[in-house]
Amino acid sequence: MLARAGRYALPAVSETRRLELERALLEHRALFLRRFGGDGPVRLWFSPGRVNLMGAHLDYNGGPVMPTAIDRGTFLALRPRSDGRIQLASTLELGELELEAGDLPLQPARRWWDYPVGVLRELSAHSGRLGRPVAGFDLLFGGNLPVGAGLSSSASICVGTALALSETWGLCLPRLELVAERGFVGVQCGIMDPYAVGLARAGSLLWLDCKDGSNAWMPLDPELHTIAVADTLVRRELAQSAFNERVRQCAQAFAELAPHQPGATCLRDIRLETLEARRGELDPLLARRAEHVLREVARTFAARDALLRGDLAGFGAQMTRAHASLRTLFDVSVPELDTLVDAAVGCEGVLGARLTGAGFGGCVVVLLRRGAEPELLARVQNAFGARFGRAPTVEFFGGDEGPREFRP
Ligand code: GLA
Prior knowledge:
By secondary structure, the chain is α+β, with helices and mostly antiparallel strands. The protein has ten helices and twelve strands. Strands 1, 2, 3, 4, 5, 6, 7 and 12 form an eight-stranded mixed sheet that branches. A four-stranded antiparallel sheet has the order 9-10-8-11.
């Protein structure tokens, strides 16, 4: 029912974009050689980031989400070593990790390498189960995805690492198994991000039902529409703990409502009428969190139906409503994000706008008709500049076909 791909052409990544990526990856290989020296072939991979258009804070509540991969992401350059040592370095972050393949850290170090080390632990265990000792390697990370902006640089790194190691070690893991090791770094995130990256397909939104993992690709015609991402450049130190707090609040709301909803296994299963009937018994804060989740589930289904009807304006309207709910019921917006959304939705040709990722700063995603780009740019820059005295970064992203090895 969802795969109405025949109505649209599914485009590959544009030629210009492909050439830019090729150039960037070759430069990344040169940086690898400068850092690690030596000889022997260096393999290169690209792994995209993502934006989420619908289903805000639903993944850890078992709800549906609609993300799409973007043509910015992580670059990985890897060369095996014969001495069992592993060296991880990054062109974007300070500090390097050097260790023995057989001696992986048990605890996170609260450094950038916690993400790849988490994956390394998972894949080493997998490799061990296959009776293969883990071999050493040098690995340089880099890329063109802003870190901490809500574009899931962490899932991009994790899925990219999983793919690179799976291919280097001959594990041949299917894409679905390349999902990130998430527990290691202490963020209680849901499953959306690794799926959005790992199952990406160009020209499509991913429909993912986080309760049962069922998924489908939903075409979004890139000839007619485009996605802009406006970055507030606000990065909150407290974002991770505030995110974990939302996860806990939703779990608590579910624990209190579940006895009144037979068969419910997650917050998404609670009916809005049940919440309304029990509202008086719930802490008002928990009731607002649950209300966001339940209404966002309904909005995400409505957005999917609109997309299937070819009603992009209807889809965009749900995005904008989602933002209002994130602001007033879920309390994860900030004035910088609200200013960008308000400026964007007042612009001719804009179909919808909302914060993407967890919130507390980061980016707004805007769905717009092609041709509306200059006006959008002028409006958001003026409104943001007038209020905050500086410019946001606004970029127009293309889609991406997912993590892959690059063979020049
Ligand atoms: C973060 C998390 C995701 C998801 C979003 C909110 O980006 O990593 O798993 O929960 O927030 O929709």
